[in-house]
Amino acid sequence: MMSNDPVTMVAALLAVMGVAMVIWLLIAAGLRECAASCLCLAGANALQALALVVRWLPESQWRTPGLIADVLLLGAFAMLHLSVPLMDDKPTRWPLLASALALLAALLTQLPTGPHHAAHHLVVNGAGGLFCFFAARNTVRLLRDRELRPALSRIFGLPFLVIGGLLLVRPLATLWMPDVPASLDTRGAFNIAWLWAALVMTLTVNGTLAFLLMLKLVLQIRRLTLRDPLTDALNRRAMAEAMAAEHQRVRRGHTYAVVLLDMDRFKQLNDTLGHAAGDEALKTLVEVLRPCLREVDLLGRLGGEEFCALLPYTGVAGAALVAERMRQLLETTDFRWQGRSWPLSASFGITESAPSDEDPTEVLRRADEALYRAKAQGRNLVQAVEAIDQPAQPPRPQSASGQGDPVAS
Ligand SMILES: Nc1nc2c(ncn2[C@@H]2O[C@H](COP(=O)(O)OP(=O)(O)OP(=O)(O)O)[C@@H](O)[C@H]2O)c(=O)[nH]1
After folding, report:
1. What is the position in ligand 1's atom list of the atom closest to the CA of 276?
2. Are residues 200 and 336 in the same domain?
3. Is this model's pTM higher than 0.80 or not?
4. Most CB atoms within 10 A, among 62, 111, 289, 309?
């Protein structure tokens, strides 16, 4: 049986907001991750509940309760909007937001009051709708940053878009339908429908954000199990899984290439500049090399100062071009540590998959052999080893270092 009593509906709304606030506070206390975001959401629920209570107070000649309720509601929307980027520890623009709120509050004090307060609703719900649209955009961005299908990130943004649109319905209805009451405590079909919508919106917003937080944590855990914490490149396990998956396609006639690279004289760098400088050099290497790769390519750290790039649908000729570009980029990188410059370089071993390869370890073994040759021939070189059953010779790009042909099989 649906309630048509505004007092019951408001009580239900307050109960939902109160429970949501307590839950967000408990999560913030128990979970150091995303604590700021959870506190923001607890604050948003508290402000919204307070706005509802204040709106119930009798109007004075200064219209103070209504004005305070509007400002509280604006604060709630602002906190809701902030909670999404805070889940990702993104910097927040507090001063900008505070200034916007102060400006809106000042505008509200200047608006004429009428029996239906349509202008007030327009400002409050319009700003609320805008904050919801921002929340939708931030949700899509939050999930786009993580390895998730884009369609799913849009689905998560959808509730905020719908709520943003719904928020505009009330002021527009108050403007166009003179019999729609501005005050919430009036019995009437529109008011009851609106209170039901507010209840559903509150549940949807809290539910969506709880799910978003859970998804964010799951993706973070997944990321930790697959990524190298120092460089953020894929770890050995993730690379092994990716290579195994890629190798499945070899039987269907596809070819993939592997570029194995190892920093040159890294021990010397560590011994001279210190371990922290070595760590920084590894991070720099990944930052420098990433732009050389396509979206489908993968870069992983196999251990120490050894990395591997997996290039799907690529032969040894293509891999030679990529590796040579990487070699040159690294060679020309101006690496500095505490004001001291240090030359970076790496040796590269490349190969491509062959139908005769039983598993990816055979491909890696050839790449390792090529890398060994590059090291043996003086470092800062690209060398290739092809499978025995590969008849064609790849085109060989010229080495810019003047140390001979970068690709030799
Ligand atoms: N800073 C830092 N050093 C590391 C890390 N992992 C391994 N190393 C160091 O990397 C060095 C590797 O040294 P070597 O295997 O002799 O290789 P290299 O000095 O680069 O010599 P070549 O490969 O022959 O040019 C060792 O000193 C390791 O301690 C790391 O995560 N951070």
Report:
1. 1
2. no
3. no
4. 309
